[in-house]
C-alpha cells in the first residue's frame, strides 16, 4: 500500500487512526456494493458497453490529445517562428500573459476539439463546425480573460 | 580642492544611486507565479493576495496567484522545488514548513532546496478556551483534568499536537488531542464545545477582546501581546515553542539580486500600514515581523535542526 | 439581538449590499441584480435540451468567484446567482417539454405527457401558463417550509450531536443516499465507495500524500471541481455526444400546430388545479428534504399520485397523458417544490442532497466565512453571529427569486422557446470545452483537465451501466469530512474504538443506516429518478 501509516498507529502514547484506514473502508464499501449486487439478485436491467461505445471513447481521447497538444505548443512554436523572422531571442514563458501570444494556443486547441467533435457527430467536416469552434473559443476568451487579470487560459499556467 | 570635493560627492552619489538602483533595477522576467499554501479566502491567503496587489500597484510587477495547499506547505514546497529560480515563481508558506514539517515528513526534501526570501508576520500562538468553561488560567485546566474531566485539546498541525502532548506530560495529565485542519476549525470546535481548549495563532484576537474566548497560555518564547500575563511554554515546563512566521520562499539558489529585491519589496509592503496588506497584518497579526537575508537563513536553519529534538521528546 | 433583529439584518444585507447601480435615485444592490441574472439564465438553460441547471452553476462558479473575490461580501451575490439559476432551470425545463415534446431537464419528462398534447390541441401558451403558475406555487411553498424548519432542525442537531454522533450522521446520510438514488442499491453503494476512494487520494493526516504513488500530480489530491464537474457534467456530455454519434441523424423539423385564440388562464381553471398543485407541493417538499432523492422522482411521484386520484374522482374529464392541465400542474408543482426543501439538509447539516445543492456547498466552501451546518443557526444575543445574518440573507434571496418568478418568470418562459431549437450537436462540444476551461482557470494545470476527462469517462461508464453518479459526487464531498470527524471523534473519546456504538444517538443512526440498506435491498424501487 502506498500509504505512510497503517490502519491504526501508536502516536504520543495513544492509539490514533492511521492514513490507511479510510481507503480500506472505502474499498470495503465497494466490496459491500459488489456483494449486494451478487447475492441480492436485483432485477434491475443493467446497461452494457458496446464496441461502438469504445470506438467513441477512443475517438474522444484522440481529439483531446491532439487538441491539448495544439494548445500547449502553438504559442511557443509561434514565438519560435517569429524569432526566426525578427532575429530576436524571445521566449514564450515571459510572454504567457501578453496578447496576442497568450491566446494562440487556446484558440487553436479549443477550436480543434470543438470542430472535430461536431464533425464526428455530423459524419462530415463542415465549415459550420470550424466557425462554431472559433466563435466559442473567442467567446470564452471574452468571458474568462478580458474581465480578469488573474485568470490564466490554458495552457499558460503550465509553461 | 573644489574639484576634489566635486569628485568625492559624485563618487558618493554614484555609490548611493548604484546600490539603490541595484535593487530597483531588478524586475521579474515576465509575470510572477505566486503559490499560496493556504486555502482560498482565509486570512493567510488574503494576506498573500493583498501583498501581490500592493506590489502590482507600487512597482508594476505582475503576479498570478495560485493555490497549492495541503500537507502543511509541503505540497507547495514539492511543487516549487523544480521551478525556475529567476524570481518568476515564489510561494508563501510558514516557517514550520521548512522546519518541523520537512524534518518530520522525511520525504527527501531539505531547506537547502529552497531560498527563504522574507517573513511578513509572526503568529500570536496561544492556548485558548471558551470563557463559558470558566477557566481563567492554564492551572485551572490542569486541575480539571486531574479531577477526572476528559480534556479535548484542539490542534492544527503535528508540531502543535506534539506540544500539546508535552504540555500534558509536564503537568502530569493526559489530554485527548484532536488535530483538525486550520486555525478556524480549532476556533469553531472550541466555540461549538467539540473541544475544550485549543491552539490558535491570532484568529482568537477578536473573541478574546470581546470576552468570549480567553488566552490561557502563550505558546511562544515570549508573552502574548494581547494577554501578557499568561504564562509561556517555559513557565509551564515545556522546552519547545511554537514561534512561527509567514514566509515567502523560492526555489534553491535564487540570484542574490532577485532575492534582495523581492525581500525588500514584500517587506516594505508588509510593514506599511497604509497599504491594505500592511493594515491586515497589523490588525490580524499585531504588526509585521520582517526577517530577511542572513538573519532569515539562520532562523530557517535553526527551525529545521531543532525539529528532531521535539520529535524525539514527543515520542518518549 | 433578537430573532427579529437577525431577520431584519439578513434582509438589509441583501438590499444594502454593494451597489450595482441606482435607478431613479434608489440604489439597487448587486445581490438583487445577480439573483435576477441567475434566474433568467436558469430559465434559458433549463429551456435548452442538453443543458441543465447544475451545469450552468458549475461553469459560472469560477467566473463569479473571480468577479466577487473571497470576501464575505461575495457570498450573497454569488449564492444569489446560483440560487437564481437553480430556480430558473426548474421552470425553464417545462418550455421545450410543452412546445416540442423534448424535456429541457430530466425532471420535466412528465410534463411532456400532457404539455405536448395541449400544444397540439392548440393550447401551448395556456400550458406554459399552467406550468409557470404551478411551478411558482410549489417553489414558494417549499421555501416557506425551509425557512420554518431549517433553524429548528439545526438547533436540535447542535444540541444533541457531539463528534461521535456527527460521524454517525454522516454515515447515515451517505448510506441513505446510496440506497435510494437510482434503481439499484448495490450500484449506489459501489458508486459511493468509488467516491470515497477518490477523495482519499492525496489527503490524510500524514505528511506523505497517500496513494499518490510519489507523483506530484496526485499529491494534492483531486480538486473538488475536477471530480464533480468531470463526473456530473463531462460524463453527461460524453454520453449525449456518444448517443448522437451512434445515430448520426439529423433533427427532424416538427410542424407547428395552429394555436387557439383564447389562451388565458382563468380563476376557475386555477381553482380546479389547486388541489393537484397542493398535493404535489407537499410531495415535492417532503422528497426534497431527504438528501439524495431528486426532483425527477418528485415529479414522477407527484404525477403518479395525482393521476390515480384524477382517474378515480373525475373519470369524465380529460385524463392524464391526453393533455390534462392537471397533469402539467401536478408535475411542475412537484419538481419545483424540491428546490427550497433541498436546502434544509444543506443549511442545517451541511449535507448536499442533489446536484444543485452540491454547487451551493462548493460556493460556500470556496468563498469561506459561511460554513453550512448547525453552527450557522446559533442565536447569539450579545454579539452578532454573521453566519446567521447570511442565512437570513439567503432566505431573503429565495423570496426575491420567487418574486421574480411570479412577476416576470412567465413572460420570460414564453420568450426562451427559441433556445429549444439550438442543435445539441453544436452545443455539447462547446459546453465540453467551456467546462474544461472553467476547470483550468481554477487549477491552472493541463493535468487537471486530463483528470477531469478521466472523471468524465468514469461518469460516462457509470451512466452506461446504470449506476447513478450522485452517490459518487456526494461521497467525494463528504468523504473528507467523514474521515476527519471520525478521527476527531476517536481522539476525543480517548481512543475508544466503539465510539459509534457507545453513544445512544450514534448507535441509533448507525442502526438506521443498516435498516435503510436492508429495506432498500429487499424492496427494489421501480421508479428510477
Q: Overview of this structure, please?
A:
The complex is a heterotrimer of chains A (about 160), B (about 325) and C (about 525). Chain A is mainly α and about 160 residues long. Chain A folds into two domains: about 10-40, no CATH class; about 50-145, no CATH class. Helices cover about 60% and strands about 5% of the residues of chain A. A two-stranded antiparallel sheet of chain A has the order 1-2. In chain A, helix 2 (about 50-85) runs antiparallel to helix 3 (about 100-120) and helix 3 crosses helix 4 (about 125-145). The mean pLDDT of chain A is about 85. Chain B is of the alpha/beta class and about 325 residues long. Chain B folds into two domains: about 30-120 and about 245-315, 3-Layer(aba) Sandwich (D-Maltodextrin-Binding Protein, domain 2), CATH 3.40.190.150; about 125-220, D-Maltodextrin-Binding Protein, domain 2, CATH 3.40.190. Helices cover about 45% and strands about 15% of the residues of chain B. Chain B has helices at about 1-25, 45-60, 75-80, 95-105, 140-145, 160-170, 185-190, 205-210, 255-270, 275-285, 295-315, and strands at about 30-35, 65, 90-95, 115-120, 125-130, 150-155, 175-180, 195-200, 215-220, 245-250. In chain B, the strands form two sheets. Chain B has a five-stranded mixed beta sheet with strand order 2-1-3-10-4, with helices on both faces. In chain B, helix 2 (about 45-60) runs antiparallel to helix 10. Chain C has about 525 residues and is mostly helical. Chain C has helices at about 5-15, 30-45, 55-70, 75-90, 95-100, 110-120, 125-160, 165-180, 185-200, 215-220, 225-245, 265-290, 295-315, 325-335, 340, 345-350, 355-365, 385-415, 425-445, 445-465, 470-490, 500, 505-520, and strands spanning about 20-25, 25-30. A two-stranded antiparallel ribbon of chain C has the order 1-2. In chain C, strand 1 and strand 2 (about 25-30) form a beta hairpin. In chain C, helix 1 crosses helix 18, helix 6 (about 110-120) packs antiparallel against helix 14 (about 325-335) and helix 7 packs antiparallel against helix 18. The radius of gyration of chain C is 23 Å and the shape is globular. Chains in contact: A-B, A-C, B-C.
